[in-house]
Queue: 2 jobs
Job 1
Amino acid sequence: MRAFISLDLEGLPYIVSRENLFVKGALYAEARKIATEVVRVVAETLHHELGVDEVVIADSHGPMVNILVDETPDYVRLVRGFPRPLSMVAGAKGSDFAIFLGYHAKAGTGHATFDHTYSGATVDRLEINGVEVSETLLNAYLLGEWNVPVAMVAGDRALIEADVKTHLPWAVGVPLKESFGRYSAVSPGMEGIKKLLREGTVEAFRRVERGEVKPLETERPVEVKLRFLNSAYAEVAELLPFVERLDGKTVRFEAESVEEAYKTFEVLVLASAGVNSIVNR
């Protein structure tokens, strides 16, 4: 059996400062240690306790080089580096199930640490077939297209109480933090976090064995609506002939599959980052 883990940082316990999130941040080393401990306890439970043969881990925050590689066990395959095709779910195709670790709430969510959707610098709102999505739902829709169900989501309680319970009711939700606001939260001690993750991983695996976990599906063709934070990003997006400008900041396009929609969305976000770099140099 093969398990896939996608790891983000903002939904991890104790991560409340921007200094945790950037390579040159004063607290980045702390965040890397937390991320490595969290992903290792899940991988060890999957392999040693549950007999999963292979664990693929997609390091999926920022530059995507957050996990300490010298602490990665030999049964793990580690996907790292950015930019890369299909970003947070690169390497997931062919897996039996997926686990999301350190995931956060979508942009505009109150009482949620670092709420954003994919790119906090450029994206204000993202819809797939009329459903406003978080990174959890965006990634789950693509995995669902590949017949890979999401069995567990561990992260901010605000995400679990909203998107996970509503759209992924079969998945185990493990709250790693309860946020007071964008830059503050409370979490159990690390030993308590590890216990929650072990228990959640075992329950998620049992649900997979019982056939209770389902791929998240959506209709095709896929309609995408994307509202940017800046009208300049929409101006660049509408240069593509298949992208329709709906208002100053919002664009719309259709794709034949979620994978095609995901890749197009990635390109638009990277183009927006390019615009930002040009105007601020």
Job 2
Amino acid sequence: MPGPHPYPLEPKVSMPDSATRFRALHSRFLVMPNPWDAGTAKLLANLGFEAIATSSAGLAWSDARPDGHVTRKRAIAHAVEIATATGLPVNGDFESGYGETPAEVADTILAAIDAGVAGCSVEDLAHDRPEPLYDVHMAARRIEAARDTIDRSGSDFVLTGRTEVFFTDLPDKLSIAVERLKAYAAAGAHVVYAPGLTREEEVAAIVDAVDVPVNVIAGLGGVSDDLAKLEALGVTRISLGSNLMKVAIGAFLDAATALKAGRVALPDMVSSASMNAAFAPRPRS
């Protein structure tokens, strides 16, 4: 179990509405796309999505930085920006918790709760270390500290334990993912997540191994592109990571490359009128 918290937490009298709504959404299949700014978040809300998530890569690229070069303060402020723009619960992609120690991860969780973020993921990627992932026991201690902070705050904040093993060169990735996600669920994660799943047997193995909701990132090929199949396999939540931004930037670069070559090619261009309508203030009831 985690040691003493670096500073005392006072139980909250009322739980944040966004976190409560977000946790309730995990009782059924939830598709949670990832915008990269307030405008794209608002467009997703207009389409009827019930929750959205940030993308660490999307935020970093918007700031002209590589993924992994965003501060805790910037990441939380970004999540608040898109929550404010939409009124929807927002799940933060908070990378490795913006700290190595369990206490540092706990600080990130507390700051997110206080800011009104509905939930976040904490991954096990070990930055600036020789090994690609934190030792499984240290990774679980970090999740324990995050869950302890949530419980002591009185919030319904949703904690996702995430392993990045499929993006490493480690052998037997599926076995490692199952071991780690079981450990993260036992440590208190409300949801578990292994980005990079593309085969049915991978998804089924993880769903069968844990008794908490499982998130899968869509758009990586194979079964990850079949939402109906993922739901049938028992997946609870779908996110897209940076994939929506990559689609948009791909179209932007195609059009810009054509322009550089002396051609105007603007397929699928939306109208100014539709954009203005999307962002127009709604009349008060």
